[in-house]
Structures are given as structure tokens and as C-alpha cells.
Amino acid sequence: MRKNNQPKNFESALSELEATVTQMESGQLPLDQSLAAFQRGTVLLQHCRLILAETEQQVRLLDETHSTLQPLPDNDE
Question: By C-alpha distance, which of 2, 8, 12, 10 is closest to 20?
Fold first, then answer.
């Protein structure tokens, strides 16, 4: 089982978060279920933000690495 019932990836977390928001916006949940849904939504949002921050950092590193690379010499000469 994943820590804190974390989703397996960003897409599943986002999908569950969207479903949770839709369910809460319907106004059909009893108070205790609304509170539980809000708490779960908070966990999902934090999970998504963490994944996005990690991905952004990886992109920055890749971009920095790419910008410092020199093109290979042309062997046709």
C-alpha cells in the first residue's frame, strides 16, 4: 500500500481530485463525508503540487544541461 494512500501517478491523483471536487460541489454529501472529501482533496492537491515541482526541477536541469552541450563536429568535411 502506498504511503498515506497516495495515488500511483499524477494523472490518477488529478482524476481523483477532479471527481472529489465535483462530488463536493454537488452539495449532496453529508457533513462528515464533505469533511472527509475535503481532507482527501487536500492530500491529493499536495501530491500533485509535489510531482509538478519535481518535474519542473528535472526540466530545468535538462534544459541547463542541453544549453551547455556543444554540437558534434560535422564528419562530412
Answer: 12
Domain spans of the chain, in order of start: 3-67
pTM to 2 decimals?
Answer: 0.74
- Identify whether the C-beta of residue 10 lies closer than 8 Å to the C-beta of residue 46: no
Cα dihedral 42, 8, 48, 13 in deg (nearest 10): -60
The rounded distance, in Å, linking the Cα atoms of 24 and 73 is: 60
pLDDT digits (tens, 9 = 90+) for 17-56: 999 999 999 999 999 999 999 999 999 999 999 999 999 9
CATH code assigned to 3-67: 1.10.287.1040
Whose grid coordinates read 472529489? 20
